[in-house]
Amino acid sequence: MKECSVAVGQAMRRLSSALLRLSPEDLDKLTDPSYDLEIKMVRRRVKEESDSSAIEDVSSIVEKLTGFSSREDAANFLDSNYSSKKPLEQIARFLDIAVTKKDRVDGLRDKIIEGTTGARIRSEAIKGSE
After folding, report:
1. What is the mean pLDDT of the segment spanning 56-77?
2. Strand (E) positions, 2-124?
3. 97-119 burial string, b = 16+ CB within 10 Å, else e?
4. Burial classification of residue 120, based on how many CB atoms lie within 10 Å of its CB (0-12 exposed, 13-18 middle, 19 or more buried)
5. pTM of full prediction above 0.70
6. Which domain of life does this protein belong to (predicted)?
7. Is the pLDDT at 48 greater than 70, yes or no?
8. CA-CA distance, 109 to 85, in Å (whole number)?
9. 3-state secondary structure of 125
């Protein structure tokens, strides 16, 4: 019985906390009988879970990308090691490349390659060195 009362106490604290976050208009709706009240429980993601795919050393990845002799080699490296959007976003942000929600994996990959390998190749072409 004690376990049940502890659980009820915890639930009441969480409910009161949620009530304190409501706007005055929403509080008025609670007392209005024309509105129904529903409780929705949503599981929060723990911070460690969401950051588990963080890349350890982005600067070494950028250095490696800059060193490739062709854009195709850089694309193959990214495809084989970072095929999902999240790590590509981390690399792009490290390079100060604009990232939007609409960006797709292939678009991010191309932006990263142009910001690293492509920039070096263009620079060498302008200087006339090989």
Report:
1. 89
2. none
3. bebeeebebeebbebbbbbbbbe
4. middle
5. no
6. Bacteria
7. no
8. 9
9. helix
